[in-house]
Design brief:
rod-shaped; single chain
């Protein structure tokens, strides 16, 4: 079917979608920061103590905690990157559409 190859995008909708995506990335980043802040501690005075049990807990806690913090931060950065690309795409679509409309009006369309 001819319509199967059609791609239609309203540039302002694409830009709005990018803005919403950016808002989501801001929320994710704030959540990652809140997690890091809420779970940070003074290494000189760890909340789990400085005895054998505390050291065992620390050994099992630090790596997964750091990996989770870094993963959530990386996810937020990836979503922010997608937002930037989406906004740029909307801007480029808008420019291309404007150029095409100008050409139609000044040159009478395709030749």
């Amino acid at each position: 079917m001819p319509g199967d190859n059609l791609f239609a995008a309203n540039p302002s909708d694409v830009q709005r979608g990018g803005k919403v995506t950016d808002d989501v990335s801001t929320f994710i980043m704030a959540t990652a920061k809140a997690f890091a802040d809420a779970t940070s501690y003074d290494p000189q005075d760890p909340p789990w103590g400085d005895d054998k049990i505390g050291h065992g807990f620390e050994a099992n806690y630090l790596t997964p905690h750091s990996q989770l913090r870094d993963a959530v931060t990386g996810f937020a950065e990836a979503v922010a990157g997608a937002a930037r690309l989406t906004i740029t795409s909307g801007t480029n679509f808008h420019r291309a559409q404007g150029d095409a409309i100008d050409m139609i009006h000044t040159e009478g369309g395709r030749h």
